[in-house]
Amino acid sequence: LDERPPLKLNASQHTAKSELSDPVLSGNALTSDMKVDLQNKLRSILHALAARHEGVGYCQGMDYIVAHLLRVLQDTILLRAVKRMPDNLSNDQLRSRMDDLNTHTVVVEEVVFGVMDTLFSSYSLQHMYWPELRCLKTCCRVFEELIKLKLPVLADHMEHHDLNVGLFALGWFQTLFLYLPSMPSTTVCHMWDIWLIERSFKIFFRVGTAILFLSQPTLLNHDLEGMMTYLNTFPDATLLRRDILIPCALQIKITNRMLVEIEMEIVHEAEQAR
Q1: For residue range 49-69, what is the model confidence (pLDDT) as tens digits?
Q2: Are 58 and 24 in contact (CB under 8 A)?
């Protein structure tokens, strides 16, 4: 991360509004106090992010991503901060220092904000939250065309039952698949690793296509209501495991050139329809 002036992560200084629902900070391992702590951090980071990127502000879906980063990074951030201190501490003393830092400093908020700011600026994440969600809606249209190319039988079945791909894909892409309650954190982290290395949203299209490919036998036996229920809950989460979903996604040939060509066709059609 580049050098930036110190951030004041005081939620009262900004006017961004967010609806932070329980699923965002869900988890059996979290106590009520931990949830309150994460909720406060989440709100502060979202306000600071909205202030930094005024053209975007706050948009639903950001909270899922910030909450995931908090859960994954918080202990690592605190541990690294404590280990910079010269004292040779026992495990109990280490935990106590970490708790003290967590309570009396904003080191976690600053680091997670810095990560989000980098994802926005250097990895094009802000495009998902542009006004009117233009880029996000285009992603859903591109995904719809990919389904027709890669899964034509399923595409015909969805069309027959008037299933709009955006009804489920919007939440998938807007939260980078954190919207799915049964999606394991390890699977999300793996696909994000690929995203950060490739600097391309291609992996998310591959994962989305892989999910539908693995779900196809079930989806073809459902009508509109059944398909929507399945795609929003995934009662059998086995297919979302990292060792199943990611290898399947990487076997699906989707190139950046293919995505650009599909997007250009969609934009051209939209201009002609005006």
Answers
A1: 999 999 899 998 999 999 999
A2: no
